[in-house]
Write a structure and sequence with these properties.
The complex is a heterodimer of chains A (about 280) and B (about 280). Chain A is mainly alpha-helical. Chain A has a domain at about 55-150 and about 200-265. Chain A is built from 12 helices and 2 strands. In chain A, strand 1 (about 45) and strand 2 form a beta hairpin. The longest helix of chain A has about 35 residues, at about 250-280. The two termini of chain A are about 35 Å apart. Chain B has one domain: Rossmann fold. Chain B has helices at about 1-20, 70-75, 105-110, 125-135, 145-155, 155-160, 175-185, 205-215, 230-235, 260-265, 270-275, and strands at about 30-40, 40-55, 55-60, 85-95, 95, 110-115, 190-195, 220-225, 240-245, 250-255. Chain B has a 10-stranded mixed beta sheet, sandwiched between helices. Chain B is globular and about 50 Å long. The chains are: A mainly alpha (about 280), B alpha/beta (about 280). At the A-B interface, helix 7 and helix 8 of A face helix 3, helix 4 and helix 7 of B.
């Protein structure tokens, strides 16, 4: 009993520990750098002689890559889940769903290499004529593919939870399968579907390996997805794996960026949980 | 869509002469002939033969597991949506076989409405619950009037007229079931199938639905499945009594006018069931 309790407490303590560590290094950072300059500055040059800690280039890269990834993952994932939940015979569903979950388990570093060895040279460069193979677009496409199973699987769960009586009610009014799916089942499962999208977005924001390998690693405030960029996670990766000395401002900066990431993903997770909770109440 | 609408209009017009000359048992809106219904290899009902009279209430009674619900679900081809659901035999609607290859089950279901055991309003507003069926059937008239008309026919208008935008799930169980009836009649079917529509309701809500059924038969033909014999006696004109056979398959014991069935049944089993010697 006590052992089981300790196991349960462990994850809570770890989370609290992470927050404490983040704060312990982020707070001294903000004694060197004004928090307002940090959030609105457009130049991110932590490792040069004339340092500048404006996080907007990293923020915009993360936002752009995550949103483009969602533009790929959400529609495809949603259509997949509609097919699986409403159209597919049970043997297809029972084959495809585990396959999706395997796809979700591919290490993200593999996706990173998939971008630079396939997506960038054979899709992005020939079609969009980018100057380099390291582009925000290439990273987004791979991240989108990576997130499809997550969106599809969670949305499918939400749609399967819609009581069969609602489908029967719609069929009995002369609705065809498409109308039942799109006008009854999807709206009834909407909060679960939105939650799936938010969780996938949180995952996209926190995703590290794909953006580190494939997006280029140059802090760049630009709206052009064909340019190299550095996402927040990729910056943390760069500094953490480099030879930056502990206690310096540039070392502390990764904790400030980490704190920002933590706030974003925590916020999205909380909103997603709120949506899921709303969706559970719906039929009771 | 146009052809469907045309067919529906033709069907509705062709029904009129029948209505005017209906004089008792002559006008059959539906008829079941030698019907077997299966779930995979399991035969749930065996060789059922019965008519359903136009503008009458036909009750289907019998003990649990006798296939009452399966039978009624065959009438609008909902049975085929169940896993392994298929039938043998014939079901005639306005004299035509509903399982003929040229019949579109989706179009058929807009002419034979259904109300289920558990009220199943959509998680949408009261208004949109009614508008849904009208929209998918290509209704082009005044939506607000059509919604009001159906709610009035279902004796629900006065209770909900000030809260049409509220979720249908905020209604009580009895109101939800009347909303489901309103939703079914909004698309002007000829037949309304009701599968134990009061089993989840309290006695007062049940009486409200029964009053409604008696009113609705002026315009619609109604088939109601019930395990409540008093209900069958109160609302129906004709009654079919089903039993479960040795092989767990349901079969028709007796079909007759409700009055005869409840006063002077032809079969000993019917009498035993009606007088409550078993259930």
């Amino acid at each position: 009993m006590a052992f089981l309790f300790l196991c349960a407490v462990l994850s809570v303590v770890t989370t609290a520990g992470i927050v404490v560590v983040l704060l312990a290094e982020a707070i001294p950072f903000f004694t060197h750098v004004n928090i307002f300059d940090f959030l609105t500055g457009t130049e991110w040059r932590p490792l040069f002689a004339n340092k500048s800690f404006g996080a907007l280039p990293l923020l915009s890269a993360t936002a752009m890559i995550a949103l483009m990834a969602m533009a790929v993952a959400f529609p495809i994932g949603l259509l997949t889940s509609i097919y699986l939940s409403e159209y597919a015979p049970s043997w297809i569903r029972e084959t495809v769903k585990p396959a999706l979950e395997v796809l979700a388990g591919i290490p993200t570093v593999v996706y990173g290499f998939f971008v630079i060895s396939f997506i960038a040279p054979t899709i992005v460069r020939p079609i969009f004529h980018s100057e380099t193979i390291f582009t925000a677009l290439g990273a987004s496409l791979a991240m989108g593919i990576m997130l499809i199973p997550m969106v599809a699987s969670l949305s499918e769960d939400a749609m399967r939870a819609v009581p069969n009586g609602l489908r029967e009610g719609a069929y009995a009014l002369g609705a065809n399968r498409f109308q039942v799916s799109v006008k009854v089942v999807v709206p009834a499962a909407l909060s679960g579907i939105v939650a799936a999208g938010l969780l996938a977005l949180a995952r996209a924001i926190g995703e590290t390996m794909i953006v580190t390998i494939a997006a280029g690693g140059i802090p760049n405030l630009s709206g052009n997805p064909l340019e190299p960029m550095q996402a927040m996670t990729a910056y943390i990766m760069e500094v953490a794996s480099g030879d930056t000395a502990r206690g310096t401002v540039e070392y502390q900066s990764i904790f400030a960026i980490g704190m920002l990431l933590f706030i974003f993903t925590l916020g999205l997770n909380l909103i997603a949980r709120w949506f899921i909770g709303k969706f559970r109440e719906e039929y009771e | 869509m146009t052809t469907i609408t045309m067919r529906r209009i033709e069907a509705k017009f062709s029904q009129k002469p029948d209505n005017s000359m209906s004089n008792g048992s002559a006008s059959k809106v539906m008829e079941v002939r030698n019907l077997d219904a299966y779930y995979g290899n399991f035969r749930a009902i065996t060789d059922v033969n019965m008519p359903m009279r136009r503008n009458a209430v036909t009750a289907i009674i019998g003990p649990s597991g006798c296939g009452k619900s399966t039978l009624v679900r065959c009438l609008n081809r909902m049975h085929e949506l169940s896993a392994g659901g298929r039938i043998e035999g014939q079901i005639l609607f306005d004299g035509e076989d509903i399982n003929a290859p040229e019949v579109d089950p989706v179009e058929l279901r807009s002419r034979i409405g259904m109300v289920f055991q558990k009220p199943n309003p959509f998680p949408k507003s009261i208004y949109n619950n009614i508008a849904f069926g009208l929209k998918i059937n290509g209704f082009r008239g005044n939506m607000a009037e059509a919604v009001e008309g159906s709610l009035r026919k279902a004796a629900l208008w006065d209770e909900v007229k000030d809260r049409l935008k509220d979720s249908a799930l905020s209604l009580s169980g009895g109101q939800q079931q009347r909303l489901c009836i309103a939703r079914a009649i909004a698309i002007e079917p000829e037949v309304i199938l009701m599968d134990e529509p009061c089993s989840a309701l309290d006695p007062i809500a049940t009486l409200a639905i029964e009053d409604l059924i008696r009113e609705l038969k002026e315009q619609y033909s109604i088939v109601i499945v019930t395990h409540n014999m008093q209900q069958a006696a109160r609302v129906s004109d004709e009654t079919a009594f089903l039993m479960v056979g040795e092989d767990r398959s349901g079969y028709l014991v007796e079909f007759d006018s409700t009055e005869k069935m409840f006063t002077n049944p032809s079969h000993e089993q019917t009498e035993a069931y009606i007088t409550g010697r078993f259930s």
